[in-house]
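Subject: design request, 138 residues
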C-alpha cells in the first residue's frame, strides 16, 4: 500500500458524514454504531462526535482508547481510520464544533446536561477507491 498525505485523505473525506465507530468493551468485544462527524469538515487528522457522557461508547473509550472509524461512499471509496479516542467537555470546544441541526439530539445546545465530544485522533488511515489505495501514518 503506497503512502498518502493527510491532504489527500482530507480531500477524500471532505463530504463524508457518517461512519461506523467501533469501540471495545472491557472483555475486548467490539461494538459498532453509526455516528455523524457533521460532514463537510476540514479534516486535520482529528474527528469529532457529539454524544452523551453516560453512553456505552464513552464508557468503553474511557477504558480502552482504541477507536476505529469506517467510512464508505456509494462510489466505492472505503476509509478505515484507526485512532485514539478521548472525551472532551470543554464548553469552548463544544461551541466551536456545534452545527445547526444538532439540537434535535441536544435540545439545550452545548448546555444540554451530559453533552460531550468524542475526539478521535488518527494514528493510521487506509483508503481504497476503485483501483487506488493508500495509507497515512501520523
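Subject: RE: design request

Done. Sequence follows.
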Amino acid at each position: 500500500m503506497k503512502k498518502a498525505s493527510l491532504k489527500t485523505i482530507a480531500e477524500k473525506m471532505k463530504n463524508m458524514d457518517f461512519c461506523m465507530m467501533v469501540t471495545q468493551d472491557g472483555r475486548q468485544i467490539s461494538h459498532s454504531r453509526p455516528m455523524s462527524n457533521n460532514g463537510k469538515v476540514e479534516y486535520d487528522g482529528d474527528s469529532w462526535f457529539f454524544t452523551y457522557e453516560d453512553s456505552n461508547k464513552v464508557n468503553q473509550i474511557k477504558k480502552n482508547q482504541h477507536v476505529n472509524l469506517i467510512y464508505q461512499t456509494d462510489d466505492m471509496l472505503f476509509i478505515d481510520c484507526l485512532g485514539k479516542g478521548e472525551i472532551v467537555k470543554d464548553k469552548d470546544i463544544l461551541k466551536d464544533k456545534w452545527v445547526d441541526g444538532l439540537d434535535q439530539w441536544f435540545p439545550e445546545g452545548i448546555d444540554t446536561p451530559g453533552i460531550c465530544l468524542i475526539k478521535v485522533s488518527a494514528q493510521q488511515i487506509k483508503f481504497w477507491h476503485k483501483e487506488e489505495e493508500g495509507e497515512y501514518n501520523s
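The chain has three helices and seven strands.
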